[in-house]
Amino acid sequence: TNMIEEKRNELFDVYRKWEKELKGKCPELINKQYSHPYYLHIPDNWYQSTYRILIVGEEGHGEKKFDLSIEEAQEFNRKYLLSQIDPEQLDKNDRYKRNGSSFWRRIRSIAQLMKNNGSSYSITWTNLDMIHRSAKNGNCKLKKKDRKALHDTDIKILSKEIDILRPTHVVYFGWYGISLEKELPDVFTRLYPNGLGDDSQWKDEKMAKFRESGIWHIFTYHPSWGYRQKRNDNGKGYEDKVLDQISETLTPGSSDVK
């Protein structure tokens, strides 16, 4: 089989083992008060793209089935993402309606930036907390003890996704220090040099970027942050700065991915 199939199988295998471990270790998260885990899909052109951008959200949103299979969750992820950034690739019946939220507006801006750059690129998306509280509206964030339980598995799922996908960029749309510390300790140490209370790396700019093991990690506030600040520009200045952060990593020589 070709590389993409091999990698998809490898990822699927990891997801299966992780799900099994999750059911054993924190069965309290596997019920209808919570969502199914957000399993990502590796796009067809991922490995041959010059730039491979993994978007990491904080958690999903809304009311979700808790017992969706891995395949169904991946298929949802694939169709939903394409519906937002490249709907032409899907049959009309397979398209979800355009999501106007600040989260998806930012992803579309990143896709546009990459298109304008001219190099081949691919985008996919996962979440730092792969399970969220299932709620129609209102707070979907996990309580602290649930978040700790979720990341207490031996398999560190975000770390595995990054190992298998080898993105050139990991772009965080908001984050939780607790989750990051468990999932990516090396990245955590760069972002929090003096431990969890230390916001020196992003306090002024409200964002940070650095390379760890040849991969750009770009930390940004959640896309709704700028709008919630009631700034005159509704956060447009901040969103432009996010795109600049990514642009700066695309100049020749700044990436060791040729």
Mean pLDDT, to the nearest integer, reads: 86
N-C termini distance? 25 Å
Number of helical regions: 9
Q: How much beta, percentage-wise? A: 5-15%
Rg measurement, Å = 18 Å
Unreliable spans are 254-258
Q: Specify the biggest β-sheet.
A: 5 strands, mixed
* DSSP strand count: 5
Helicity level, as a percent range? Answer: 25-40%
Structural class: alpha/beta
- How would you sum up the global shape? globular
Trace the largest sheet across and list its strands: 2-1-3-5-4
Spell the H/E element sequence.
Answer: HEHHEHHEHHEEHH
Question: Explain this structure to me?
Answer:
- It contains 9 helices and 5 strands.
- Strands 2-1-3-5-4 form a 5-stranded mixed β-sheet, sandwiched between helices.
- Helix 1 runs antiparallel to helix 5.
- The chain is 40% helix and 12% strand.
- The chain is globular.
- It starts with a helix and ends in a 10-residue tail after the last helix.
- It is of the alpha/beta class.
From the structure above, extract its key features.
single chain; 258 residues; alpha/beta; five-stranded mixed sheet; 5 strands; globular
Question: Concise description?
Answer:
The chain is an alpha/beta fold. The chain has helices at residues 3-25, 70-85, 102-117, 144-150, 157-165, 177-183, 185-191, 225-228, 236-248, and strands at residues 51-57, 121-127, 169-173, 207-212, 215-220. It is globular and about 45 Å long.
